[in-house]
Amino acid sequence: MDQTSRFTSLQTSSLVLLRLLIGWHFLYEGVIKLYSPSWTAKGYLLSASYMESFFKWMAGESIIPIIDTLNIGALLLVGFCLIIGFKTRWASIIGIGLLLLYYLAHPPFPGYPQGPSEGSYWLVNKNLIEAAALFVLFLFPTDYSFGIARLFAKPKTVSTNPIP
Q1: What angle do CA 65, 77, 108 make, to 5 degrees?
Q2: Which residues of the chain have pLDDT under 50?
Q3: Is residue 3 part of a domain?
Q4: Range of the domain at 119
Q5: In a domain, 157, yes or no
């Protein structure tokens, strides 16, 4: 049964729109990185201001090609799944994980330098907000109301048992 069936069409449409917008953001970021041969996460990881040793390890020469590939692949996968409406709960979990890693590399904590961003933040930044939005999508998936998952949904069966 579709979990959003108890919502109005406006509420469901709003959740679908949120899913599509976040999906587009992830897909676009993945495509841009994929087609930019010089792109690497190394600079972002080396400039981490929190959990520095973990992020510096991720930026190591032997592992950075794997990290870059996983980052691009995850962005593309999350974006694609959210846009087409397939496995959106899994996509939301993966997206939340990515965004929390981005958040922890350069958290807007008092006393820490601001990382690469277009603004000033305090405790909350766009990575944390988008992770929270993905959590909402995880809790209220819309892939069966608008998405290809609907094609794989089992049809509702009507019981024809006579009343004794």
Answers
A1: 70
A2: 1
A3: no
A4: 9-152
A5: no
23 closest CA partner among 102, 133, 101, 151: 133
Would you say how long the chain is, in residues? 164
What pTM did the predictor assign? 0.85
In a domain, 161, yes or no: no
Provide the angle, in degrees to the nearest 10, between the axes of the packed helices 126-139 and 9-34.
130
Residue 162 lies in a domain: no
How far, in Å, CA of 26 to CA of 129, rounded? 14
Q: At residue 73, what is the residue type?
A: G
Tokens of 95: 């997206």
User: 3-state DSSP: the chain helix, strand, coil percent, rounded to 5?
Assistant: 60, 0, 40
Question: What is the CB neighbour count within 10 angstroms for residue 132?
Answer: 12
